[in-house]
Amino acid sequence: MPTTNVRCLSQILDYLQIQDLLDLIDEPAHTACKHILADNRKLFETTRGSTHNHQAWDGGYLDHVVDSMNYGRHLYALTKALGRPLPFSISDALLILYLHDLEKPWRILVHSDGQVVNRQGLDTKAAFKAFRAAKLQEYALVLTPAQLNALTYVEGEMQDYSSNGRVMNELAAFCHMVDVWSARIGHAYPVDGDEWHGAGRFRQFPG
């Protein structure tokens, strides 16, 4: 595809920032998600997206979440435009993508020597799950069974995989696919001067 056509496409596929993305999440989750952001925004804006593998810069956590939510919006719209039904709403998908790494701002530490590590005691999948559950309870955010399945398996079925039945539901698979895209294909994105029109790292968009 010629460069000019790619550039035009990037302008059509708008890139929203976190406040506008949260506005696409239905109540009652909408208000709880806004409160989580308001109470922890400084922490979210300074935490790395991972210890090494993706968006591993200060503020990369929020960049990964925003990038994932934008990819999710457009992948959802594409699938619907193709006429294939999805058994979940765009609100469901954005909610799970917003929450899927919620423990990271409290989990990832950067030592004075530059070493990046997981906080002791918050360094296993079980601990991540328990921490997220506690945060949801703190903000009175109750997930539906389908949403809970998605949040549980957004990183894959892992040891729960079974050849006798599907463990992750469609919402989980959709969010897993988007998360892998951001973490393993777009691991260095967003960037300043991003090819995707309107995209950039959070520090470009204060407030």
Outline the secondary-structure elements.
Layout: H1 3-12, H2 18-22, H3 29-46, H4 60-81, H5 90-99, H6 104-107, E1 108-110, E2 116-118, H7 125-138, H8 145-153, H9 170-185
Antiparallel strand pairs: 1-2
Please tell me about this protein's structure:
With 207 residues, this protein is an all-alpha fold. It has one domain (3-204). It is 52% helix and 3% strand. It contains 9 helices and 2 strands, in the order H-H-H-H-H-H-E-E-H-H-H. It has helices at residues 3-12, 18-22, 29-46, 60-81, 90-99, 104-107, 125-138, 145-153, 170-185, and strands spanning 108-110, 116-118. It has a two-stranded antiparallel ribbon. Strand 1 and strand 2 (116-118) form a beta hairpin. Helix 4 crosses helix 9. It is globular. The model has no long low-confidence stretch (mean pLDDT 91).
Q: In summary, what is this structure?
A:
This protein is mostly helical and 207 residues long. The chain has helices at 3-12, 18-22, 29-46, 60-81, 90-99, 104-107, 125-138, 145-153, 170-185, and strands at 108-110, 116-118.
List keywords for this structure.
52% helix, 9 helices, two-stranded antiparallel sheet, 2 strands, 207 residues
Based on helices, strands and strand pairing, what is the structural class? mainly alpha
Helix content: 40-55%
Question: Proportion of β residues?
Answer: under 5%
The number of E-state strands comes to: 2
Task: Give the CA-CA distance, first to last residue.
Answer: 36 Å
H/E order of the elements?
Answer: HHHHHHEEHHH
How many independent structural domains? 1
Q: Per the principal axes of the C-alpha atoms, what is the gross shape?
A: globular
* Rg calculated over all Cα atoms: 17 Å
Unreliable stretches, pLDDT < 50, 5 or more residues? none
Major sheet description: 2 strands, antiparallel
Order of strands, widest sheet: 1-2
